[in-house]
Amino acid sequence: MRMSLKVNGQAIETEISPISRLSGFLRDVLGLTGVKEGCCEGECGACTVLLDGQPVDSCLMLAFQATGREITTIEGLCGSGVNDLQQAFLKMGAVQCGYCTPGMVLAAEGLLHANPSPGEAEIRHALAGNICRCTGFETIVQAVATAAAARQGAER
Amino acid sequence: MNQISRRVPLVDGVAKVTGALRFTADLHVEGSLHGALVLSPRAHARVASIDATAALAVEGVHAVFWHENTPSRYYNSSIWFAGQEALADERMFPPVVRHIGDRVAAVVAETEEIARHAARLVVVEYVDLPAIFDPEAALVHAGPVMRDDGIPAFMNPVADESFTHGDLDAGFAAADLVVETHVTMPRSHHCAIEPHACIAKPEPDGRILILSPCQSVFAVQAVVVQALGVPQDQIRVVKTPIGGSFGGKAEPILDPLCAFFALALGRPVMIRYDRHETFTATRTRSSVVGRMRIALSSDGRILARDTETLVDIGAYCTGGNYLPSSMLQRLVRLYDVPAERYTGRAVYTNTVPAGAFRGYGSPQIHTIAEITLDISARRLGVDPVEMRLRNLIEPNAIEPWQGLNVGNARGRECLIRGADAFGWQGRRRADAGRGRWRRGAGVASATHINGCYPGFHEETTATLRLLPDGRAELVCALHDLGCGADTTLAQIAGETLGLRACDIAIVPADTDSCPYDLGTRASRMTYICGEAIRRAGIALAEAIRAAAVLELNTEASGLRLEAGAVRRPDGSGLALSDLAARLAARGEELPAATEIYRAQANPGSYAAHFAEVEVDRLTGRVRVTDYLAAHDVGRAINPMLVEGQIHGGIQIGIGYALYEDVAIDRVTGRMRGDSFSRYTLVNASEMPPMRVLLIEEGEPTGPFGAKAVGEIATIPVAAAVVNAVNDALGTELTDLPLVPERILAAVS
Ligand code: FES
Ligand code: FES
User: Fold this and answer.
1) Is residue A13 packed enough to be buried (19+ CB in 10 Å), middle (13-18) or exposed (0-12)?
2) Is residue B142 domain-resident?
């Protein structure tokens, strides 16, 4: 079937199989391998993308369900550059193997979009669907809090 | 010091946060085919027949492989060099499957989708055989592990290790208290978020290139050579970035298959497991049943200890025969025990094979010992921290099993300073509460090794070479598993050369271009590879100074390397890139240095962990509410990465204590925890606040005083948490994990 959607700011029209997963479509058809797959059952969050600004598990969606919507993957967050949140991840050691990182960063962006100054418990709650097996989440939570505070400060 | 003790961000960090880093499944290899496996639904069965007709009829299917059309050679997936003696009992596709998830057949097709679809069409007829799921029952199935004709017999035990030291009877006779425990440890799974994947690619010269997220390219090569029976130089292995391993990717599982399929079909072949396959068809931590009898004096001194362990290694040996002795090695380096007896046996069962997992037996044995010690302390009325302090091994003690010096062992400082920072006294004395919620505090100590000395080839070769742009290239077969080893080691190299970590270009581990190394295992990266690199760096610095003498018209001894330049005492000098350009202009080779470092010691790393828990007596849920980890790391090359290792180790350890168990059914052999929805992982909300205290007293044999931290970080956690729960409830729980049903059974 044909579908049109926007991915990382670009309008795309394409032929897709009605049974292909959104994560598979983004990875295999569009080559956006920053979208990771860790379980394909909505349990790990490695495949998180932003759908109209909201974090979703792209492995749980069929590609055609994104018709007419706007998707942001890690590749579309800041081009080849690194934004303040990604910078905070690097500086605070919130990245180890990096496999969960794209999904984690996008989940955090989704949170900060909805709630620009989350408390620690809110951050932890928002990231509860994203599993990191390396970091114990401590530095991830710190990085998100730091980026949130800096963004709030910059706005004032 | 410009690089040591610095919180340097990961050298490959930008590629990770931008998603640009390509893991194996992200690689696009031109013309690649995809494989999918048929895994056994039976726990022990003869594969009577396989009908691949329907699968082969699917458009896009290239081949179906099973035991009749693949090499029938036996191999052992845990070997780490060619020719290593090991019990070879595994086959690419066995004619008799030995566990649910064992490999029956594989389909190779144009796409993964087609391969997976066709794999479901392969018709297999099984004839069931009696299966054993219980390690105690497995002991009865006794006999030699190998038949005379070299065919594995799968009899037990696979290993039987015993050790006695001192006068056990006298110790028990003099005891004021004898405590006996029976501790059971579950099978936990690594759960690296990247599932297993591998690519093999035929090269124009007839060789096979394997791209593998592995812990040692040389181990992959050795295993593939053993499985396929091809000459070693026909197999080249290059390490790809790895999305977490924790030991789960230490053994090549898909590599022999991919290599054979690529060889047979003349096309690149990729296989990637899904999560369910990663659970059922790779490796787990071995489950262990431990019995400990401990003799104590009234003031809390250990007089004698008698330990028995039974290790369930699953369907294939892999490295499981080493587990009983590994556990012994770690047990005897923590406390000064005058009389010790240890018996450890490993047995096959018809369950998924066990393999390496962060700590390699250490979490199991220290959990057994530390829970036992805590129960003893309570029965004696001695404070658990005090009791540990009375028994801890001293710096430079000689452990009784291998006679190794434990080095600058600072377990004592970990306990004293950790207890102080945690507020141990106050918390332990605090009332547990009366109602639904009970609070408790627990402590556990641990030790772990640094490298494989005095075992196999504990040496490595590092080469550092000045590059034309003034940076330096490092060749040392390094396998960063995502813990930041590349960054740490680049800091060490940078420190010796007046460069930054990001100025060190690390050549990825490659069997063609790197000298042999054991790989990432046994907590050896920083301690062993780091020391080789430090020495190579010093030698390169020397060579650079010598090369600069002519250019700077001064004596080498007055020159120093600093901020990417070689400088005279007055600060004037030459950028390394300029020096390189001038040397090149003169037709001279750029300075390089190679050092072969052979380890002479195996000191211990030490730790003490403190946990506070809250137990809900109504639901049986345990919540870890606060955590402090004190670690004797010698010196933290990168404190941020060291803390990161400890945080991650605590997370895995809390899971080990409270939730994680693949839960193999004792009747059917089926794994219940075979997906993320049925295997509970600790998430961000469940993690407690964590504090880390680093004890940096320096280990004389380590690079800049450093010792290992990666594995030990997870070792004391489960015991600290269980001890806290026992404190909260006044129980003596010893069966892990402490799932709600177990808590409820204990309080009712
Ligand atoms: S891959 Fe989508 S949630 Fe795990
Ligand atoms: S950094 Fe490895 S899974 Fe998060």
Assistant:
1) exposed
2) no
Shared-domain flag, residues B461 and B552 = yes
Measured between beta carbons, the chain A residues lying within 8 angstroms of B687 are 124, 136-138
From chain B, pick out residues whose CB is under 8 angstroms from the CB of A71: none
Cβ of residue A97 lying under 6 Å from some atom of ligand 2: yes
Residue with CA closest to ligand 2 atom 4: A132
Give contacts of B 673-732 with A, CB under 8 A. 675-677, 681, 683-685, 687, 689-690
CB B725 within 8 Å of CB B615: yes
ipTM: 0.98
Are residues B654 and B713 located together in one domain of the fold? yes
- A105 three-class SS: helix
Whole-angstrom Cα distance, residue B514 to residue B531?
17
Nearest CB to A136 within list B12, B241, B647: B647
Written as one letter, the residue type at B200 is A
* Minimum mean pLDDT range among B125-139, B434-448, B548-562: B548-562
CA dihedral sign, ordered B501, B504, B507, B513: negative
Please report the domains of chain A, with CATH numbers, ordered by start residue.
Answer: 2-76 (3.10.20.30), 84-155 (1.10.150.120)
Q: What is the mean pLDDT of residues B13-41?
A: 97
Q: Give the whole-angstrom CA distance, residue A10 versus residue A5.
A: 8
Nearest CA in chain B to A84: B17
pLDDT on residue B432: 84
Q: Which long-range contacts (CB under 8 A, 24 or more apart) does B27-31 make?
A: B27/B199, B27/B211, B27/B240, B27/B270, B28/A31, B29/B199, B29/B201, B29/B211, B29/B268, B29/B270, B30/B268, B31/B267, B31/B268
Q: Which atom of ligand 2 is nearest to the CA of A140?
A: 4
Considering its fold, how many domains does chain B have in total? 3
Most B-contacting residue of A133, A141, A146 (CB-CB within 10 A), to test interface: A133
Global pTM value: 0.98
What's the start-to-end Cα distance of chain B, in Å? 59
Residue pair B249/B213 in contact (Cβ under 8 Å)? The answer is: yes
Strand partners, B266: none
Banded model confidence at residue B550, pLDDT cuts 50, 70, 90? confident
A103 and A47 Cβ atoms separated by less than 8 Å: yes
Which chain B residues are Cβ-neighbours of A40 within 8 angstroms? Answer: 274-275
